[in-house]
Design brief:
- With 327 residues, the protein is an alpha/beta fold.
- It has helices at 18-22, 56-63, 90-95, 103-106, 113-123, 129-142, 148-152, 161-173, 191-208, 219-225, 243-248, 253-260; strands spanning 3-13, 29-40, 45-49, 71-76, 79-80, 96-99, 179-183, 211-216, 228-233, 236-242, 313-316, 319-321.
- The strands form two sheets. The chain has an eight-stranded mixed β-sheet with strand order 6-7-8-3-9-10-12-11, with helices on both faces. Strands 2-1-4-5 form a four-stranded antiparallel β-sheet, covered by helices on one side.
- The relative contact order is 0.14.
- Bound molecules: adenosine-5'-triphosphate and magnesium ion (MG).
- Adenosine-5'-triphosphate is lined by residues 12, 30, 32, 52-58, 217, 285.
- Magnesium ion binds at residues 56-57, 183.
Length: 327
């Protein structure tokens, strides 16, 4: 086991208006991540999927400590990363990297590709210029930007979207991390180049023994990329298991609805899952429903669902579901 997440919560305070303050209304919170418990094995691709706003990115940021949690722990190689003093966290930062959705935003447009990929080496004190050059050269080769000398002198705007995302991957991998969070790394890219980037990520995982937390709202991407898949809804995991069995045999009514949105025999990269054929909209993460958080939208809801919150329990080997249907 590389990572263990225990009781992880992140509540963001909602901004209060003057009238709220004057009337002494209680501070409210967006419960973006609400009590997550899971593990990620070494060399695994662990996927988080779910509709927009369910807390995927917040979870990804918490796992590399770009955010501090409201509660809970993330053990990396057995040590709680939030206990590490901020000053000593640099060593962990080196081992835990993140790739964002939008390579336009994450790359400084005024830096050359060479400087962008070299920057993490400078920050982490790789002193010799020659060593840095060799590492940048190899990193660009690794991500398929060849010949590297042609790309080094260019600027981000001179590259295609796919090439820019390759630069972002080179930056993330140059320090030889163990764990990489990839937050929707292909969702901004043209459909035709997505498969190439995903394949590159899997090849690099094999080559360098990486472990990924892969975030997507696209179940067909999850199906191709992931070993295990966790389905999130309003900050919680409602189903967790091997990606293929969760997608081919979903158990939670929410997962079923997500899977039904993918046309049969069309497990490809095209189908997005932002819209789901279930009742109503996602409730506000500020005032969560009572009992099971999914019950107001659930077509299978019955007597206990609006009263008791179901726990995530193992219903078959390796298959976890939080639903009263499986008590
Ligand atoms: N810094 C913040 N301050 C306040 N609320 C936040 C902040 N970051 C996220 N949220 C809220 O937390 C919830 C979860 O957001 P998050 O970005 O984690 O969702 P997501 O699953 O990544 O969505 P998407 O698929 O759109 O990227 C949302 O309601 C969002 O508005
Ligand atoms: Mg997100």
């Amino acid at each position: 086991m590389l990572i263990e997440v225990r009781g992880l919560k992140k509540y963001f305070p909602v901004r209060r208006s003057w009238s709220d303050i004057l009337k002494r209304r209680k501070q409210k919170f967006v419960k973006a991540v609400n009590d997550l418990n899971f593990t990620i094995e070494e060399n695994e691709v662990f996927c988080l999927a779910g509709e927009s706003g369910c807390g995927k990115s917040t979870t990804g940021r918490l796992l590399v400590r770009l955010l501090e949690p409201t509660e809970g722990q993330v053990l990396f190689e057995g040590k709680n990363i939030y206990d590490v003093p901020k000053k000593e966290f640099k060593e962990y930062r080196r081992k835990m990297q993140i790739i964002f959705q939008d390579p336009y935003e994450s790359l400084n447009p005024r830096m050359t590709i060479y400087d962008l990929v070299e920057e993490p080496l400078r920050i982490h004190g790789v002193r010799s210029e020659e060593e840095r050059f060799d590492m940048v050269y190899q990193a660009l080769k690794d991500v398929g930007l060849e010949p590297p000398e042609d790309f080094m002198i260019r600027y981000p705007h001179q590259l295609s979207g796919g090439q820019r995302q390759r630069v972002a991957i080179a930056r993330a991998l140059i320090l030889n991390p163990k764990f990489v969070v990839a937050d929707e790394p292909v969702s901004m890219l043209d459909v035709s180049i997505r498969a190439g980037i995903l394949k590159l990520m899997l090849d690099l995982k094999e080559k360098y023994g990486l472990t990924y937390l892969f975030i997507t709202h696209d179940l067909s991407v999850a199906y191709h990329m992931c070993d295990r898949l966790a389905i999130m809804y309003l900050g919680k995991i409602v189903e967790l298991g091997p990606a293929d069995s969760v997608i081919l045999d979903p158990k939670h009514p929410y997962t079923k609805a997500l899977v039904e949105a993918v046309p049969k025999g069309q497990v490809d990269y095209r189908r997005k899952l932002k819209e789901v054929p279930i009742k109503g909209d996602v409730p506000s993460p500020i005032d969560l429903p009572s009992g099971c958080i999914f019950h107001p939208r659930c077509v299978e809801a019955f007597e206990p669902c609006d009263k008791e919150e179901p726990e995530l329990v193992e219903v078959e080997e390796g298959r976890f579901v939080a639903c009263h249907l499986y008590r």
